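--- STAGE predict ---
source: upstream dedup step, 1 unique chain passed
mode: sequence only
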Amino acid sequence: MTSYQYQNQQLQLENVNIKEIAEIVNTPFYCYSQESISTAYNGYVEQLKGLDTQVCYALKANSNQAVIKVLADLGAGADVVSEGELRRALAAGIPASKIVYSGVAKTPDEMLFALSKNIFQFNVESENELYVLNEMACSVSKKAAIAFRINPDVDANTHAKISTGMSENKFGIPISRTTEIYRLADSMEGIEVQGIDVHIGSQLTQLIPFDQTFKLIREKVIELATMGIQLKIIDVGGGLGVDYDASNPVIPSKEDYCALLTKHFSDLDCKIILEPGRSLVGNSGLLISRVIYKKRGEERTFIIIDAGMNDLLRPSMYEAHHDILPLTESDNTATYDIVGPICETGDTFARGRKMAELEEGELVAIMSSGAYGAAMSSTYNTRLQVPEVLVNGDQFSIVRERISYEALINQDQLASWQ
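--- STAGE serialize ---
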């Protein structure tokens, strides 16, 4: 991420000293760089000038209204996986004509809501879903524009919990059934077949799985055309990762990724839909936390911070690496386990991490937390979900407040007999 730097030994996000935010917004809190989000989005757009494309931001990465609004103003569409995300996208100003509805378990009510908004496309993931969508569309005298999500059985070489393109995964139609399922859909009164969709996983660090997948999808588009089913949309999903460890960059460039799209699809006269999430917002965000205790154990020293796994789940769930930097630059180093306050051993952000020396009361930034941070947070241990802040140049604004304990507890209600 290029939007942070030390100035006079103080960590800044764009032109804002993060300590100034911490004086107003108590830790822990998230802060995002609008410049970083814009740069990431424009990186795709610039590389795809020669193709008919639409970038649809995958809201599951970060669904804060202010973040969505930044992308909406740049021309982004949205990839949503629930009625709630669809409502968020619409509320942030993304037109329904740019919204793609993914997800393996769309309910009839969700389908009807999306049909009422005239969204651009449903990405259908099963034959069962196809029948229900056809029934819902017919019930309101509409046609549902669809693409089938094809499972190409390609190993994305990513973490097992975020790999989605293998035959053992729950996602999509097996590639062997492509012809059969398209013929079925083409015969349905409430269905308009317009595209093909694929998404093989998240945080991909190699181009080879993309290359293999795009080749297979190209072949299917050509094969379907020979049957009289002329597709006009190719939805390539998302999946390009971000570099979480600044000392070990591994992610292919957007330029090389987009070159694959041109290589495989430029001559097919189809509109290309991209659904990036992490690669648009991941490196835009920091989770700011304070050191509560420095605890010396028999074999190691623990830095206990006020952010927990309920605030940032990725290290606990995926064994994920995040760089951790002090807000005040230091040349002195030490080795720590960085842990949170949750009553779980898994509430650990780093083990045996050699980093800047820290003392109680110091502020730290957990880097590259803009994706799957706040979006996956919870109130576990009855902890308040943290605020979110958006930075733009020398300005910052709180874009989600921290609710009170009273508001959190009052979400519950006693049973009628209590």
